[in-house]
Structure formats: C-alpha cells, structure tokens
Amino acid sequence: MTCPRFRSAATFTHPTGGSWTLSRDLSASDVAVIDCRERIETAVLNGTENLWPNIDEAAVLWPLLRGTNTVDLLASGATSGTTVKVRLRPRYLSA
C-alpha cells in the first residue's frame, strides 16, 4: 500500500467469506508482507517488524487459488492518492 499516509485499518475480504483487518498506520515507503500459507501465516512490515499483533484476532486468512481471485479492500483513511499493490509469489510445492 502506498500513499502519503495510510491511517487506521484496512480490511481484506474474500468472496468465500474469509476476512482479516490490518490496523496500523502505513507510510508511502512501507511494505507489508502477509503470508497466508497454511501453518506459516506471518505478517511483516519492511522485512523486520512483526505485524501479527496488528491483525485482528478473528482473522480468517485464505489461499489464492489458480485463476482469477477477487478480493475486496476497505481502507479507512484512504484518499484518491492511495495505491495498493499486490504481488503474488506462487508456491508450487508444499510440505
């Protein structure tokens, strides 16, 4: 997510019903990496800071499936200058 200042909370919702909220102010240079792989689930800010305490306790993370995935994002404090960039890193094999 990039913007002059992203405030408060962002809620990501998958059409199957899973959702999670990240409650944290982010700046334009911040990079949040959320790993939704089963048994690995991590949230890291700028490669070092644990964001997991900023993810709601009722979070339901979901895997992205092959093909098109639709995810809704509701960001409080967002402006017309707010940008969200999503990059998928496919994992072909799992343990």
* Domain module tally: 1
> Can you give the mean pLDDT?
78
Cα-based radius of gyration, to the nearest Å: 13 Å
| Largest sheet entry | 3 strands, antiparallel
Shape: globular
What is the rounded distance between the termini?
A: 30 Å
Low-confidence runs of at least 5 consecutive residues:
1-7
Describe the strand arrangement of the main beta sheet, using strand numbers. Answer: 2-1-6
Relative strand content: 25-35%
Number of helices: 0
Structural class: mainly beta
- Fraction of helical residues: under 10%
Domain Siphovirus-type tail component C-terminal: 8-91
Organism: Actinomadura litoris
Protein name: Siphovirus-type tail component C-terminal domain-containing protein
Helices and strands in order, then pairings?
Layout: E1 9-13, E2 19-23, E3 32-35, E4 42-45, E5 49-50, E6 72-75
Antiparallel strand pairs: 1-2, 1-6, 3-4, 4-5
Domain Siphovirus-type tail component C-terminal: 8-91
Protein name: Siphovirus-type tail component C-terminal domain-containing protein
Organism: Actinomadura litoris
Brief sketch in words of this structure:
With 95 residues, the protein is mostly beta strands. The chain is 0% helix and 25% strand.
